[in-house]
Specification:
14 helices, mainly alpha
Amino acid sequence: MWEYILTGILQGIFEWLPISSEGIVALFSSFALQQVNSVDFALFLHLGTALAVIIFFWKDVVDLILFKDKKFLKFFIIVTVISGGIGFFVYKFASNIGGGPALLFLMGCGLLLTSWFQKKKIKIKASNTVSAIIVGLLQAITPIPGVSRSGATIFGLSLFEDDPKKILKTSYLISVPVVLGSGLYLYLKTPAIISGNILIGIFFSFIFGIATLKLLMGVSQKINFSKFTFIFGCLCLLGVLLYFVPGILEFFK
């Protein structure tokens, strides 16, 4: 049981950072939980952190449901349609290909470049629709191993927005429909994936997800945008290094 608890904790902590939580959880579960499909298990654990987002940002979720913020609702729908539609085919046909670390590296460099843009007071102007399309496309490629969903969407959002709190909140909210859809698909594909142990993992991913989310949102209000993007850019590059850890460990065996 402890393996499922630990994987849930890892998911709850790393989901919000531009380091692939799916990759970290899949890496750990491939060693500790060899009887399960590590990638599908990692994806399913996202249900816990999705619930954390719904609870933490419940006022924003209610506003979406009640159509109170029509501009954000339009953005939300465009991102969901693009990332859900294209992301499904990426999961089906490209989830086993390489290139994830290279894409994450580019996003990390992009965030560092965005940090420099902010220092120089350079900002990209685009319509709500265009920014939604770009962010949706970036979220769509995240089933590729090594690509961080948070890293991809934070990079995309930071091109058009300079409020760290708003960037993080938007990044996490737009993940919910995709996570719920992928969870439903995985259940329909493999009903046996639901078990007492995985529910324990989801529970711990929810608890630690709420705690980490609160901490990160608090930090985002205390640092300027340039430092915010610089830190997250460095974390993206760290994620690239972590992706190669299994190969390095295998080399020294």
